[in-house]
Amino acid sequence: MKSINDKILQLLHTEDSTNIELAFQLVKGMHLGQLNEHSRQALARHPLLCLQHVPKVLSDVERLYLGFKKLQVLSEHIGVLKSLKILNLANNRLTEIPTSIGQLKVLRELNAYFNQLTKIPDSIQQLQNLELLNLSNNRLTQLPKSLIALQKLQNLQLAKNQLTDFPQNVKGLRNLEALDLNGNRFTYVPESIGTLIHLKALYLSHNQIVKLTKGIGALRNLENLYLANNKLIEVPASLGSLQKLTRLGLEDNQLQALHPKIQELGHLKILNLNGNQLTQLPTSMGALHQLEWLGLANNQFTEFPTIIFDLPNLKTLDLRGNKIKHIPMEALMIQHLIID
Q1: Interval 116-144: pLDDT, tens
Q2: Which residues are CB-neighbours of 41 under 8 A, at least 6 positions away?
């Protein structure tokens, strides 16, 4: 006579949905200790059914991928998975995350991008080991204040939501290194972002930002700053304080001039100014000796900006879409000169 474990394995291996459901019905009436290792592994290959019927089967699981499952609701039993370190809920139809998520004390990564989330539970503050949180491509209009309690968080992805503001006191996010707010509805850069002193990458493109606050100059560790597709008319002098900056994206704004303080960005390698209203460059730009890529396409230049010749490491220069009638012969020495 077959043992109960053999029966469960036989039902699971048929890959028939009715038999698989029957296997889980059998397991519901059993003590977890009655399942051998083979049965537990076979059951764990059906994580959604485990969460519904026997969540303790997943109690030792450290990684759980539930992406592309057309999920509309995540079971509250998710909180039973005490060993979980990585949870992927991406590309589903979730409108909320259960409060039991706060029970996952060792969780390091939570991916819930491409869902329909409108809010995040306050219990998220209990995820004190969380290092990465990706909530991009949802329907969030505001963030819970409890978010600032995530002291180990290093990477926060909130792109393509409907956010207009950011929590005021964010000093608790003391280890945050990357913040992605692309594609939201910000009209200004929240002052509180200036307190994220360990930030290395800040993404604020595709918003409606009209002006940068002076506080952005406090981000002394920033290496990548992206502000493309906004409504900026100018950049503040404080931008010159970002002396570790290597990439600066300011394309598709309404800039008419650059502040001379840009000369202080001595480590800058990539500067994208495409799609603005610039007619000239400040002479101070000649101090950007590390600059390798410069985008000036679709501006209002009528003369070639000769300050370019003071940039010894420049490899790529994009000048398409301007009204420059004469290109100096020396410019042809630039490795990648892009002109109409």
Answers
A1: 999 999 999 999 999 999 999 999 999 99
A2: none
Q: How many residues does the chain have?
A: 340
CATH number 3.55.50.30 given to 186-340 = no
Do the beta carbons of residue 296 and residue 324 sit within 8 Å? no
The full 3-state SS of the chain, as one line of letters, equals CCCHHHHHHHHHHCCCHHHHHHHHHHHHCCCHHHCCHHHHHHHHCCHHHHHHHCHHHHCCCCEEECCCCCCCCCCHHHHHCCCCCEEECCCCCCCCCCHHHHHCCCCCEEECCCCCCCCCCHHHHHCCCCCEEECCCCCCCCCCHHHHHCCCCCEEECCCCCCCCCCCCCCCCCCCCEEECCCCCCCECCHHHHHCCCCCEEECCCCCCCECCHHHHHCCCCCEEECCCCCCCCCCHHHHHCCCCCEEECCCCCCCCCCHHHHHCCCCCEEECCCCCCCCCCHHHHHCCCCCEEECCCCCCCCCCHHHHHCCCCCEEECCCCCCCCCCHHHHHCCEEECC
Q: What CA–CA distance (Å, rounded) separates 76 from 104?
A: 12
Domain limits of the chain? Answer: 1-56, 59-181, 186-340
Global pTM? 0.95
Q: Are strands 336-338 and 270-272 parallel, antiparallel or unpaired?
A: unpaired
Rg (CA), the chain: 26
Q: Write out the two tokens for 105.
A: 């004390």
Can 59-181 and 186-340 be said to share one CATH topology?
yes
Q: Reply yes or no on whether the pLDDT at 307 is more than 90.
A: yes
Superfamily of domain covering 59-181 = Ribonuclease Inhibitor (3.80.10.10)
Over the stretch 217-235, which tens digit does the pLDDT of each residue have? 999 999 999 999 999 999 9
Given a cut of 50, is residue 1 above it in pLDDT? no
CA distances for 34 relative to 24, 27, 49, 57, angstroms: 14, 9, 19, 11
